[in-house]
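User: Show me an example of a complex going from sequences to structure tokens.

Assistant: Sure. Here are the input components:
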Amino acid sequence: MWHEIGLTHYLVVAAALFVIGLYTVATRRNLVAVLMGVELIFNAAALNFVAFSHWVEGAVGGQVFALFVIVIAATEAAVALAIVLAIWRNFRSIDVADTTELRQ
Amino acid sequence: MSFVWLAILFPLVGAALNGALAVAGAKPPRWVHHAIALAAMAGAATVAIAAAVVLVQAPHEARRLVAPAWALLPGPGLREPLALVVDPLSATLFLVITVVGALIHVYATGYMAADRAPARFFAALNLFVAAMLLLVLGSSLVTLFFGWEGVGLCSWLLIGFWYEEPANARAAMKAFVVNRIGDLGLLLGMALLAWRVTGGALSFDAVVATGLHADGGALTAALVLLVVGAAGKSAQLPLSIWLPDAMAGPTPVSALIHAATMVTAGVYLLARLGPLYARAPQAMLVVAILGAATALWAALAATAQSDLKRVLAYSTISQLGFMFLGAGAGASEAALFHVVTHALFKALLFLAAGVVIHAVHEADHHAGEHGDPQALARMGGLAAALPWTRRAYLVGCWAIAGMPWAAGFFSKDAILGATLARHGWPLFLVATGAAGLTSLYMFRSYYLVFRARAPRAALAAHAVEALDKKDGAAMRRMVGVLVVLAGAVLVAGPLLGLPEALTGRAPVLEHWLAPVTSAGVERAAAPHALELVAMGLSLAAAVAGWALARALWADEARGAALRETLASAFGRFEAPARDGFGLDALAARAVVAPYRRLSSLVAGFDRGVVDGIVALVAMLARGAAWLSGAIDRYVVDGAVNGVARLVVAGGRRLRRAQTGRVNTYVLVVVLGVLLLGVLTTLGAR
Amino acid sequence: MVSVKRIVLCALILCGAAGGVAEAAGRLRVEPSAIVLPPAGGEARLTLRNGGDRPLRIARIDVTGDQAGLRVAPLTRTLQPGETAQLAVRRDGGTTPAFAGLRVVCDDETLPALPGGGPDERVGAVAVRAGATPLLGWLVFLPLLGALIILLAPGSAERFARAVGLAATGGVVVLTGLALSRFDAGARGAQLVDHAVWIRSLRVEWFVGVDGLSITMVALTALVGFIAALSSLSIDKNVKAYWALFLVLMTGMLGTFVALDLFLFYVFWEVMLLPMYFLIGLWGGPRKEYAAIKFFLYTLVGSVVMLLGVIALYYASPAGSLVDGTPAAHTFDLVRLASEGRGFATTPRLFGALGFAEVVWALFFVGFAIKVPAVPLHTWLPDAHVEAPTAISVILAGVLLKMGPYGLYRVNAAVLPGATKWAAPFVAVVGAISIVYGALCAFAQKDLKRLVAYSSVSHMGFCLLGLGALTTSGWQGAYVQLFNHGVITSMLFLLVGVLYDRAHTREIDRFGGVASQMPRYAFVFGLAFMASLGLPGLSGFIGEVLVLLGSFPSYRALTAVAATGVVLAAAYHLSALSRVQLGKWNAAQWKDRAQFPDLTAREALMLAPLAILVLVLGCWPQPLIALSQGSLGEVLAKVAGGR
């Protein structure tokens, strides 16, 4: 396995990225940082798609999906940042701990 | 022959009339009550005489009048017709009860002339006569038992006549209860007879007929039980304790009930079943021993009495003992002869005593004293004031002592002769001793009452004068009856009972009674020599008794020395003898007190234990109810509440997932998607 | 509030009157549903109609029950829907009432199946009654009617209630006299019978009739009830309620004595309980609540045990039919249970030596023994008597106590003769113990009413002893004692009540010399006490002597022990009599003698009939014995024969 860069390597990197993104989402207190984590997860998924697309014969869907992911990520980032701006205006803070009004 | 029922009906109607007057509270003139009572007695006596006449005219073996009524117990099962039978035995007593009873009624009109409740008195007296006649004339043991209890009731009514005095009520109750103890024996004897001997019938004819062929053991047992009953009614040991106390009643009552008639019912029963006793020698022996022992015991007690009526009471017990002895010696006829003579002379003695008591009471009244008018110690000096009474009393003493000619002589000798012949010397000597003592204590009483005693004599004379002035007719009635009775006493003996040894023929009464009392029984006549020996010895005893009495008490001064020696010898026996040798105390200690304790114990057991168990059950039920409630409250309801609490606690835990933080929500979403994916992949595989 | 109560009551009555279950709507319709023929004979016509939509095949007409003289025309047809058929039923005249059932055997599947018949054979039942008289029904329900009238009266209506109460109990006396006049002492079996179906689904019938023993008990109830009603005139609080409850109680008592259906018997038995509870608990003395609840629960426990027995007998009973012909797998009919039950002795052993019959006998015995009352199940009685008002004590002692031995005769002896014979020694022992124990306890009592209560325990012991002796005299004595004790003890309680009304105490030691103040009262008091202690010539003696003489052959030692009761009775009776009536007037306690007037007219009127009965029956018990002898003899023969 170590003598050639194969699918596995790409999957591992994607998994690592995914986990890092998940960890960021779960633990960071800064809303923008959480958004960054979400972006990491998107990219991990896109990487997975591209890797499979390359190593499976005739599969072009993965690359198409990667393009979709990029678009959605951009859209989502725009919407999410708009929400962050709204939050900043309401709560005067973008700390997650300060926006727990829906807590039970 | 139903006219015989009139003899019972007349006194019943008389009792009902007087009773109605008493209950209604009406107060007609006194003679109305007297008239009702005397008319009833006259009617009864007439019937008795008529029945006797019819009987006499019948042939010797067939003397029987039957007067049936209705079926008392109609059966099936126990069948008891209600019927009266007049045969020689019952006719004899029929006459005694009605004639002597009538005389005593006449006396009572005088004696009770000043009483507040004559209606009640004469009603009870008439009722008594009716019951006694039912007893004597009844054709079966059950009818006899009706009369038996009826006289017990009347005895209770009359002993407690002056009921405001608690002691009288107590005496009445004692008499009734002690009689009932005897009745227990009578009932059981009847049951045994019905079961093992007669097969269900209890008429005398059936009992005698089947008993003569019956199994000895059962018959003896039944007869002994009947003796217990007879002993209760006739005041034999140990059921004699009621009679001395029964003297609390008015003197005519003592005369009629406790001397002449009721107490002889036991002897009547024994005589009625005489043929059967002849077949059960053990039973006869029991009767004889009982009679002799009672006779001696009572005679001893009588010697020490200090109350005139109690002397006579113990004397009655003693004489009844003689009658039992006669029955137990196979001489039922002699016993019945003694019943007749005893009725006459004891009634005479009691009635005379009544006059004496009246006089003493009046004397006390005049002197302003309040002593006991019946105490012998306060008597004396009455000879001049009451001459006819004295003569009558003397005749009575002569008779009861067994002096020659007078009634008691022949009857007592017949009994003693039969005893000697049948049971030998021991019982005979006991009986003769009792006879001697009889003479002793009777003459003692005579002398104590009538001997010269200067201070009392004057008082007595004044008293009798006052009585004569107050109600001379009453006094004359009373003394008149005494005279009639005295005459009868003098005549009855030779008329009815000259013994075979003297005349060569059976005595009149014996011959008259034989078909009934000795039916089917072979009577071995006592050898004449033995009879004469008995006669001689008993006469000797009687004379000795009289002589001793005369020496001791006829003259207060002369006998003093002799009295001293006797007192030092027998003095310590005097108190116990007066109390009947502690029989009363024994009864109280051994029967009454333990019964009271037992009764309290049982009642306490009932309240504490039996009812306690009920209360315990109730307590357990309440405890179970409490337990059930507790289970309901804490367990069942607790489960319900616990579920609620569980739900709330669970909710509280689960709520912590809602942090309000975006991180958490995003994380959960992603993890959830991952999980779904894994599960789907696994599921697809 | 009152009017609402009344409306609810009316509604309940109407519902109750609506009675039995409506017939399931099947094809067979019968008009009329029951035939009543006159006693002299006659004819009736039945119309059978097919009310369904399919043809109805009628196979035949069967007859069950009293068929003598009954003639039914045969009928075999198929009825089309809506078609009718006529059926003639003819009966010749007869002297006794007859109850028969017509069974229309058809194929209507909603009807019960014919036992032993084919799958298509169903039974439509029609009752035929000839010559039946509702006399007993009127007798039983007249007091209940009176109670309803009282309850419907407006306001407190005290005088009205008393008048209706007296009228009702007086009416019962009149009807009882009528029944007695129609009763034939020599005939066998039940008389004045009325028999109809009541609760079809439970197989319960309205079956009433009297035999010798029940009619004496009915007479006793009527007499004592009327006298208690006279005594109740002095009740002055909640008068309406009192009289209503009293009359319901009368109905319960009368019903128990005439019921010949076991379920009906049990219903009436229970009906007695609740009014008694209230009568003691509301109008009684200081501890009335305690006494009432004690009485109620004690008797109820007995009733529950009895219920087990009732159900057991029912399920073990032989099959037959109801009076109108409806087939029934089991029955409550006491007459049939007695005659066809064969003593229930053939069923298997349950506990060791105890078979079904013995266990059921014991169940019933517990219930009845509590009522007798037998030692040791008697402790409810003294409290109940002491706390109850006088009239209720009279009813309790005079009538209720008689239910126990009556039940022992009607159920235990008649239906379970073999078990009765097996248990007879036990019953006799219990009786003897009761006699002595009751007498001992009575002697120690300080309260006059408690003393009389314990004397009742002692007297009823004689009943049990006679019952256990299994001899003719024993049984005669037991049931004569039953009637006589009812009369005497009623007198005793009335007399205690007279004294209590004046003195407001019953403590014996506080009295003394009453005879000097109240002579008439003392006379009657003495009469009653002498009768109670069994003086010959008064009625109490007859029963006692028959029992003692009758049980001696069976149990000598036991009878000897029981006979000591004669002495013990004299002791406590005379002791109480002396302490109350004789001696000096207790002036320390009672300063005002005017507080003690002699008997009033009402009191004398109450006591007089009882006193007359006591005197007459003491010398002439013939009518009493003759009435009950026939039925007693029959049952005794079965018991003694061991079947």
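The lines above are the inputs; the final block is the predicted structure for all three components together. Chain C touches chain B through 61 residues (CB under 8 Å).
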